[in-house]
Amino acid sequence: MKEMDKKQLRKDLRQLRGQITPAQRSCWSSAISENLKQGFPELQKGCVGGYWPHAGEYDPLPLMQWLNTHGVTLALPKVLASSEPLEFVAWRPGAPMRDDAYGIPVPDRSPAVAVDAVLIPMLGFDAAGFRLGYGSGYFDRTLVSLTPRPLTIGIAFEILRVPTVFPQPHDIAMDYIVTEQAIFYRQQDKLVTLSPEECANMMR
Q1: Per-residue pLDDT tens for 160-186?
Q2: Is 18 strand, coil or helix?
Q3: Rg of the chain over CA atoms, in angstroms?
């Protein structure tokens, strides 16, 4: 029953996200980027894994370009096989790209890198900090495989918050969740709202 619920929930949230106007998406994406810049000074160090946006997701590319100007090493996820973890490969603005099996651009012939923090797209999220993805399980498999585990920051628009995403034992909750309205920290299986300043102080 829960898997059927999750399938319907994914369908509903895809439809809801598809109703966001381009102007709303642009405005909300800018607000998310500002929350990330102000709340996570640690992103300006080490290696940050992002993603190439599709299907109406928050667009992290302007933020990643900004991080690039601050000397941050950037990476994008690469699908190796349907049952394997993702591999993060180095990326920089303007790098040669090719489409993967899903039609998503990935860096062409870039080396694999270890990431210190990962921005993770979410189709939805719940009050316990669990992410609803697209059902492939790539990010869960990847996070389990990485030692040490990187900082995980789930990204979604506020309207995609739901009471529960019906988490399963293999699902991994996010360390933080960022929307256009707030930054959330997962503490004792619930989300605590932080201001960008409070989040930045916690990260230091």
Answers
A1: 999 999 888 888 899 999 999 999 999
A2: helix
A3: 16
Is the distance from CB of 176 to CB of 185 less than 8 angstroms? yes
Q: Which pTM was predicted? A: 0.94
Please return the burial class of 179, using the count of CB atoms within 10 Å of its CB with bins 0-12, 13-18 and 19+: buried
Structure tokens at 161: 């918050």
Cβ contact 186:174 at 8 Å: yes
Using omega within 30 degrees of 0 as the cis cutoff, is the peptide bond preceding 111 cis? no
75 near 120, Cβ under 8 Å?
Answer: no
Judge whether 125 and 148 are in contact, CB under 8 Å.
no
Structural domains in the chain, CATH included, are 2-203 (3.40.50.10420)
CA 119 → CA 5, 15, 21, 88, 152, distances in Å? 26, 23, 23, 12, 6
Q: At 101, list the tokens.
A: 């099996």
For 186, the 3-state DSSP assignment is strand
d(CA 8, CA 163): 14
Q: What are 81-103's pLDDT values in tens digits? A: 878 899 999 999 999 999 988 88
The structure tokens 């930054």 sit at 183
